[in-house]
Design goal:
Helices cover 81% and strands 0% of the residues. The chain is an all-alpha fold and 160 residues long. The N and C termini lie far apart (53 Å).
Length: 160
């Protein structure tokens, strides 16, 4: 309840201004180019990747099964990203396909190495846990960075 004698016109004006600015910002955001959208997506993926890498450091040996499950989910997501990039490249020019083929193979090799590290994690015991977890984290970081680099390369080479 507003006290008697308080002028509410100023509050209504501020509300209208904030609403208008919010709508204007939303409208401008909706009209951004595909390039800006791609850049934002890359930034989002980088942030998520950094967070996932940080989360990997916190697992103890007692949480091994949870770590394996999380890593398998991360590996599946990376493989899906690689498949998406491959599909985009397949629909591009022959020159881009030829240039991309070794890059894609390198990404698939990194994903295979991560899969092998994940198998090592499942076989780890308490004394080898920290080193196996660190090696898995390193393989994940390398693969995730490779996928990010490949996304950037594809966005530079192939028009959206």
């Amino acid at each position: 309840m507003i006290a008697p004698g308080v002028d509410t016109r100023g509050m209504k004006n501020k509300t209208l201004i904030v609403t208008f600015l919010s709508i204007a910002a939303f409208a401008v955001g909706c009209k951004q180019s595909d390039q800006a959208s791609t850049s934002q997506q890359l930034d989002k993926v980088q942030t998520e990747t950094k967070q996932a890498a940080q989360d990997l450091k916190d697992y103890t040996y007692a949480q091994k099964a949870e770590f394996v499950k999380t890593m398998q989910t991360q590996l599946d997501a990376l493989n899906q990203d690689i498949d998406t990039l491959s599909a985009k490249i397949d629909s591009s020019s022959d020159a881009v396909k030829a240039d991309a083929k070794p890059k894609l193979q390198a990404l698939r090799d990194q994903a295979a190495q991560l899969k092998q590290q994940l198998a090592d994690v499942q076989n780890a015991n308490e004394s080898t846990w920290d080193s196996v977890k660190a090696a898995t984290k390193s393989a994940y970081d390398a693969t995730a960075k490779g996928v990010l680099d490949a996304r950037q390369w594809v966005s530079d080479k192939i028009a959206p």
